[in-house]
Amino acid sequence: MRRTMHLARCATLLLMAALSACSTVPPWERGTLAKPVMSVDPPPQEKQQKLRTYGAKEGGAAATGVGGGGCGCN
Amino acid sequence: MPPQPVSVGADVGVISVKSPRLAALTAAAMALPGLHARAAEPGLNPFTVDASHLEYFESGNRMRVRVNQATAIAPIGDSTQLIADGLQDVISGASPINNAPGPGGQPHQVLTGASVNDRRNAGDIGASLFSNDNQITVRQGWSSENDYKSTWTSIEGRHFLNQKDTVLAAGFAFNDDGVSTHDAPDDFRTRIKRDYFIGVTQIINERSLIELSLEYSYSNGFLSDPYKLVFVQSTGLLPDSRPSERRQISVTGKYLLYVPPIDSALQVIQSLSTDNWGINAGALEVQLKKELPGEWQVNAGGRLYSQSSADFYQVLFQTPPADGLHTSDYRMAGFGSASWLLGVTKQITPNFSLQFSGERTYRRYALRSGGTGFDGDNYIWSFYLVTLQAQF
Question: What are chain B's domains?
Answer without folding.
Answer: 31-391 (2.40.160.40)
